[in-house]
Write a structure and sequence with these properties.
The structure is a single chain. The protein is an alpha+beta fold. It has one domain. The protein is built from two helices and two strands. A two-stranded antiparallel sheet has the order 1-2. A hairpin with a 2-residue loop joins strand 1 and strand 2.
Amino acid sequence: MRVTGTSTTPCVTRHFNHCWCVCLCVCLLAALWFHNVLNVDSGVAVNVFWRHLAADQYDESDTYGNRDLVAASRATHSVDRAIKLLDALPGDYRDFFARKLIARIQSRACKRVDS
């Protein structure tokens, strides 16, 4: 694997990796990594999830472990509702208050990463 650049994700700037897998090659991704896979040929993907948090943190109907944790899902819906409310404002105001909300989330919820 080789580093090909950087990417800014919410809260954290990280390096991203670019990987070409060949026949019988395995690529392991760390937990909580933003990732995207492009299949240029045929391939098989296997997802393995460990449930190590309290049972109420997980969606009961999430058989395969693909869904967000319950609190994260609720927070996402709240953000979607906030964005919908901001849509009623004129463009410059919507932008200002959206940036204010982003800054609040970053200051209150994101883990600080020292450069």
